[in-house]
Amino acid sequence: MKRKIPAFLLPIILLLLVFPLAPAAADPVPPQVAATSAVMINADTGQLLYSVNPDAHLAMASTTKMMTALIIIEKCRDLKAPVTTSERAATIGESSIFLKAGDTLSVQEMLNGLLIQSGNDAAIALAEYEAGSEEAFVDQMNKRAAQLGMTNTHFVNAHGLDADGHYTSAADFARLGRELMKHPEICEIVKRTSYDINWPGDPVPRTMITHLHVMETHPEINGIKTGFTDNAGQCVVVSASQNGVNLIISYLGGPSLDQRDADILSLEQYGFDSYQQKTVIARGNEYASVDVPFNHDKKLPLTAEEDVSRLVYMKSDVEQHLVLPDELQLPIHKGDRIGLVEITENGKYVGSTYLLASEDIKEPGVTERMSYYMHSAFGFLLSAARVN
């Protein structure tokens, strides 16, 4: 149901009550990880789910290439545009897609080489294509980091090889990963375990192979980027989705590849287990009662019109809010919509349904009205006499 207060309630809203929902199952136990720093967030909301040394300044190796890809995907208007490899790009060394000076690939092919096989040569080629030089491109990387609130990050290059002053934090890179995965073109690339690039003048395509091998056995993991140098250790930023829960995990300074993958799987399971599908409003349950006009003792119970079921974070502050009229307008028929019950999670609207009258209430006749007024007047006089 859409969040819309009916017109008949707008001028007569009196009450906004808050009732915390009772906790359900016990919270899952957060895992211990071997990384120097790790952060996990909800990819949809940005909510922090797990954190170890989130702001520590650390080398990030080839996870750097996430920012390279973000700049390109945000600024490039034509992914089919040609990118020519310079001598500098071709000779950068380490992880590469084996570009030679003069080789020309499309922006899209370079992005696949950058993010799947982690080509340092593709990183420089894209940087020079976009900004004219890697140095100018790095300026763009740092400006974009500042715009994203990445206050513990500074880039020196576009590829991630160790360099003085080249660092980030797990919290910053979780934020970067979330931003990068907002782009469908990037999502399509990083979920691939391999990709063939047809090479000019070569009848055999070159196959790019992902370094995020855990995707091959765990389909809930759909990207994003790994990295490793002796200085940085094992680094990875992972996107994972299951049963409507979307996670971003940032992991820096892991001791080994096997430990990195084991820790990532433990973290994602903890993240998925931290959410539950709950019936936050139950159809037919009584959520409020309101005074019946011209009747001193009677209240009208109000029940929920529909079930409202939502996926909610187990540690969230989930609350019920009642919106009720200050006075009933008689007559009332059973099933009339009288008010609303709304649900918020950490102050954010989740869902709502109408509150229905549980019985008929007739409009009082003249005799009943006179009796009510006389009883009210007598009660007032009696109260005044006691005060005096």
Account of the 3D structure:
With 388 residues, the chain is of the alpha+beta class. It has 9 helices and 17 strands. Strands 1-15-16-17-13-12 form a 6-stranded antiparallel β-sheet, with no helix packed on it. The protein is elongated. It starts with 12 loop residues before the first strand and ends with a helix.
Keywords, separated by commas or semicolons:
single chain, 388 residues, alpha+beta, Peptidoglycan synthesis regulatory factor (PBP3), Domain 2, Beta-lactamase, 6-stranded antiparallel β-sheet, 5-stranded antiparallel β-sheet, 9 helices, 17 strands, 29% strand, elongated, disordered N terminus
In short, what is this structure?
With 388 residues, this protein is of the alpha+beta class. It is 28% helix and 29% strand.
